[in-house]
């Protein structure tokens, strides 16, 4: 979890003791406490979230108010996730569903039905249970849930990013994690060749050429590195 906290910095920016929101699932206006959080995610960019606390129903809704620029992330603006009370005391459950992009470039959402499909970053940092164990109910099909503490709204924000945003990133979280040390290496050397970056990535982190090229492209778009003449690269700032 410590590594994940380094990747995603979440800050409370506004609290409203009494506010209202429309719950799409219930199709009605609800009243309760609302918090706004700013999330700085090293993997995808900066976000603004609204967390609505329905204490009466033990139902929490998190909505993406502002997303990073880009055709895919823009489609998540206004999207919401709902966390509900689990049969396990003091915990909330969320049905794990991941973003995917269809043939026309539209972002869709699919519930995970096989445990092998759950991203390792979720499994390592959150408790995962079958739907029946988390809710005490049975529904057609096999679904999986995450469990988080009722008062841990930052965990809800994190899960939104892991399920909705990270699957849309051009670089997998696993590759991102492995190559953070490589970025530090480039900075320490001040300037190095792309060929040397590929060699080190392959020897020290086991990352293939195609993945490291995608990582370098991502860092260049994020203005964290700069490509120079002669096949060299250096960090920016």
Write up this protein:
The protein is an alpha+beta fold. 32% of the residues lie in helices and 38% in strands. It has 8 helices and 13 strands. The chain has an 8-stranded antiparallel β-sheet with strand order 1-2-3-4-5-6-10-9. A 3-stranded antiparallel β-sheet has the order 11-13-12. α6 crosses α7. The longest helix has 17 residues.
In short:
This protein has 237 residues and is α+β, with helices and mostly antiparallel strands. It has 8 helices and 13 strands. It is elongated and about 65 Å long.
CA-CA gap between termini: 28 Å
- Give the SSE order as H and E letters: HEEEEHEEEEHEHEHHEHHEE
Q: What is the 3D form?
A: elongated
Helix content: 25-40%
Topology:
Blueprint: H1 2-7, E1 8-23, E2 28-41, E3 45-54, E4 59-66, H2 71-74, E5 80-85, E6 91-95, E7 97-101, E8 107-111, H3 120-125, E9 127-130, H4 131-135, E10 144-149, H5 153-165, H6 173-189, E11 192-193, H7 194-205, H8 209-221, E12 225-228, E13 232-235
Antiparallel strand pairs: 1-2, 2-3, 3-4, 4-5, 5-6, 6-10, 7-8, 9-10, 11-13, 12-13
Question: What keyword list fits this structure?
Answer:
Arc Repressor Mutant, subunit A, eight-stranded antiparallel sheet, three-stranded antiparallel sheet, 8 helices, 13 strands, 32% helix
């Amino acid at each position: 979890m410590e590594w994940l906290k380094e990747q995603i910095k979440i800050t409370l920016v506004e609290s409203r003791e009494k506010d209202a929101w429309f719950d799409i699932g219930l199709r009605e206006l609800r009243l309760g406490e609302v918090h706004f959080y700013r999330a700085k995610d090293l993997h995808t960019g900066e976000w603004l979230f609204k967390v609505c606390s329905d204490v009466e129903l033990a139902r929490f809704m998190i909505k993406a108010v502002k997303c990073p620029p880009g055709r895919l992330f823009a489609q998540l603006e206004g999207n919401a996730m709902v966390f509900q009370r689990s049969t396990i005391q003091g915990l909330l459950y969320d049905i794990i569903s991941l973003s995917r992009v269809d043939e026309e470039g539209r972002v869709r959402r699919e519930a995970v039905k096989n445990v092998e499909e759950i991203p390792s970053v979720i499994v390592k940092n959150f408790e995962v249970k079958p739907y029946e164990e988390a809710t005490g109910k049975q529904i057609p099909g096999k679904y999986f849930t995450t469990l988080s503490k009722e008062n841990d709204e930052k965990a809800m924000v994190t899960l939104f990013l892991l399920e909705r945003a990270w699957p849309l990133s051009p670089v997998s979280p696993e590759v991102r994690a492995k190559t953070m040390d490589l970025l530090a290496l480039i900075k320490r050397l001040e300037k190095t060749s792309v060929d040397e970056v590929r060699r080190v990535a392959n020897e020290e982190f086991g990352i293939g050429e195609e993945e490291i090229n995608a990582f370098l492209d991502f860092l260049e778009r994020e203005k964290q590195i700069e490509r120079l003449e002669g096949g060299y690269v250096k960090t920016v700032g």
